[in-house]
């Protein structure tokens, strides 16, 4: 639930970013808005390690890190397309931030509704024993 709250709070703060015209306030809002989301990464690694069957933690964490690395390929390309096709570069960057905000809010709500590490661990371990 801490991870979900971090995503929702961070995404919720960033919703206001396009309305901010003061550069210092925008930098502060970005810093504070992305901070709670950063709390999610160590919690995600811990949850995945707890859920993955014995002997599979390194494989599952490797897949997770590989998927995270894909964002480093996709996000700059998507941002470049948005900036290039917007009326102004500022409008393109605003769109990019809004997509990130929306993803954080939706992701946080999905995590809150679906993820239960203890329940998921028990289900995965029970399936590993019977399968």
UniProtKB/TrEMBL annotation:
Keywords for this protein: Membrane, Transmembrane, Transmembrane helix
**Residues spanning the membrane:** 31-48, 60-83, 95-115
- This chain belongs to the protein called MFS transporter
What SUPFAM superfamilies does the database record attribute to this sequence? MFS general substrate transporter (SSF103473)
Source species: Pseudonocardia xishanensis
Record's InterPro entries? Answer: MFS_trans_sf (IPR036259)
Q: Does the keyword Transmembrane helix apply?
A: yes
């Amino acid at each position: 639930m801490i991870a979900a709250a971090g995503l929702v709070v961070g995404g919720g703060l960033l919703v206001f970013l396009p309305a901010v015209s003061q550069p210092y306030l925008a930098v502060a809002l970005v810093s504070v808005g992305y901070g709670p989301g950063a709390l999610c990464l160590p919690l995600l690694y811990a949850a995945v390690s707890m859920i993955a069957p014995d002997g599979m933690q390194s494989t599952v964490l490797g897949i997770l890190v590989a998927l995270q690395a894909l964002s480093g390929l996709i996000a700059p390309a998507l941002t470049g397309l948005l900036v290039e096709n917007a009326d102004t570069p500022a409008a393109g960057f605003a769109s990019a931030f809004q997509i990130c905000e929306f993803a954080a809010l939706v992701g946080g709500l999905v995590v809150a509704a679906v993820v239960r590490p203890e329940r998921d661990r028990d289900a995965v371990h029970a399936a590993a024993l019977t399968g």
